[in-house]
Design goal:
The structure is a single chain. By secondary structure, the chain is of the alpha+beta class. The chain has 3 domains: about 140 residues, no CATH class; about 100 residues, Rossmann fold (3-Layer(aba) Sandwich); about 80 residues, Immunoglobulin-like. Helices cover about 20% and strands about 35% of the residues. Strands 6-7-8-9 form a 4-stranded antiparallel β-sheet. The longest helix has 13 residues. It is globular, with a radius of gyration of 22 Å.
Length: about 350
């Protein structure tokens, strides 16, 4: 085979979780994406809600098994030498669909070819093949080095465990509900009244900190100083509003460490009678407005759900959905942005 050489690498990626407008839960998943010639492979597959087999919540033994498969040290899990490249974020079955490809050796090289969308044991390449994707030839030394770097002598792996979030404030109902919602989508969450006395290594385990709205400025400053002293990279933020789905979206935005140049969803502003959404590549975007009414009851209103081309897009806001203090959440399969609605 004479396929041209391309580079192979791995990069952290996220499938954004959340509490959707209809009350459904969407699981948060951290994983490693495959980077081909400097660009994440998942971005080449249009707007696909899927994760690679190298996910952080698999556990060391299963994670190691996935690496061994990609190195062709174990048999292919599917007929025809096929391997799952991206699968459903919510389950492990083929029924939801998966991107599979043939992985084979050619001398010292590794070749990925015949990418297809597969929903059962027998894929139809002519009907469901990704004809513009691959084949890719990777130099064996580079390919092996990228994957074997994840393996340690004790069989563990270098991918961080699932994210943890610290909620600071009184154990009020809203923080308790937020913690429960985060745990349900796969994000660890603890509530504390005082994080100042915690050990530095414990503080460094948190990826984000949410201050309850009743936490005073002096307390916030003390917590910020404690995290800074611990050399933590956690994002510290104040809860926007006592609306649980909105707060979950705010946490998801804080957890996103994707470099700006690899993001689909680039920007979100809202004010007056429109929201402005910026996207880098074609993707499905969903916009939801959140607000509290005069009786402090939360309301969610779906504003938009469609695919957008690259660029900036102006989307009308329903005046009834953004009365009073309100917020807009923009969501793609891999990112969430939150913004308050600026009043005229």
């Amino acid at each position: 085979m004479t396929f041209r050489y391309v580079t192979f690498g791995l990069a952290p990626a996220m499938r954004a979780g959340g509490v959707l407008a209809n009350g459904a839960y969407q699981i948060h998943r951290d994983f490693l994406d495959f980077v081909v010639d400097g660009r994440p492979l998942l971005l080449r597959l249009a707007d696909l809600d899927a994760v690679s087999p190298l996910a952080s919540d698999l556990g060391p033994s299963i994670f190691t098994e996935q690496i061994r498969r990609l190195l062709l040290e174990t048999d292919a899990p599917l007929d025809g030498g096929r391997f799952v490249i991206y699968g459903c974020p919510e389950c492990e079955g083929l029924e939801c669909g998966a991107v599979t490809a043939v992985i084979e050796r050619d001398g010292a090289d590794f070749v990925w070819r015949d990418f297809v969308w597969q929903t059962d044991e027998t894929p139809d390449f002519e009907l469901n093949g990704y004809h513009g994707i691959g084949p890719y030839r990777f130099r064996g030394e580079q390919y092996r080095a990228a994957l074997e770097r994840l393996l340690l002598a004790d069989g563990a792996h270098e991918v961080p465990t699932g994210p943890r979030v610290l909620l600071v404030g009184q154990r009020a109902a809203v923080l308790a509900k937020l913690a429960a919602a985060l745990r349900r989508i796969g994000i660890g969450a603890e509530i504390t009244l005082d994080a100042v006395g915690a050990l530095a290594e414990e503080l460094r385990k948190y990826s984000a900190v949410v201050f309850g709205r009743t936490v005073g400025q002096e307390e916030r400053d003390a917590v910020r100083d404690a995290f800074a002293t611990a050399r933590s990279e956690a994002v510290l933020m104040t809860a926007l509003s006592p609306i649980v789905p909105l707060l979950v979206a705010q946490v998801e935005q804080a957890l996103d460490r994707t470099p700006y140049d690899r993001r689909r969803l680039l920007g979100l502003t809202a004010g007056g009678d429109e929201a402005v959404v910026q996207v880098a590549s074609e993707c499905r975007v969903r916009l939801v407005a959140h607000r509290l009414d005069r009786l402090s009851r939360p309301h969610a209103h779906e504003l938009f759900d469609a695919s957008l081309e690259p660029g900036a897009h102006r989307i009308p806001l329903d005046a009834r959905a953004v009365r009073g203090e309100s917020f807009v959440v923009a969501r793609t399969s891999d990112a969430v942005l939150v913004t308050p609605v600026a009043r005229r």
